[in-house]
Amino acid sequence: MATGAVHTRASMVLALPTGAAAWIGYDWWVGVRSVPVAAGAMLGCLTGIFLTPDLDIEAVTGSEWTIIKWTLGLGWLWVLFWWPYAWVFHHRSIWSHLPILSTVIRLLYVALVFSLWWWVLSVLVAAVTFMFGNGSYWLPEVNPASMWAFCMENFEWAFGLFFGLAVSDFAHWLMDAAPLRGMKTVGNEL
Ligand SMILES: [Zn+2]
What we know:
Strand content: under 5%
Helix content: 55-70%
Number of strands: 0
Structural class: mainly alpha
Shape: globular
Largest sheet: none
Number of helices: 8
Radius of gyration: 19 Å
Number of domains: 1
Bound molecules: zinc ion
């Protein structure tokens, strides 16, 4: 079973070939040489280091510690954000680990939970501005529909990012699954 550090390295190594594959594939498929698709795919693959299938682990993982350190503690919000996900999905269940399906579920989770947090934030801002001002404020509207519309407006970026993330998740699944069975190291089952 691969550890978090091994998954991280795999996503880093895969980023460049994934970008190249996206560039060639999109050109072949759509007939467009798209920089956003290629760059998005590279970025999506690297995003997989943090938006990982192992967010289904309730304990704070290596990648989460990295975020907490880099953000001077703000990363605890990230841990909190994913806590319900870890609580609902068992570690290495098909919902969090099966290629494509788990990638889609994780992105849906981001859209829904982020929208919920955003909604709570706007209620708080409304209350505070009402108490200390004339109650007028402006926050952009963020909800799953507006996020989807944004992705469609920036389709090539969104497509590339999804592709890259899916590749990262696919590699994660392969490394967690059959090929490495028998190399299980006790206590290191990330
Ligand atoms: Zn895993």
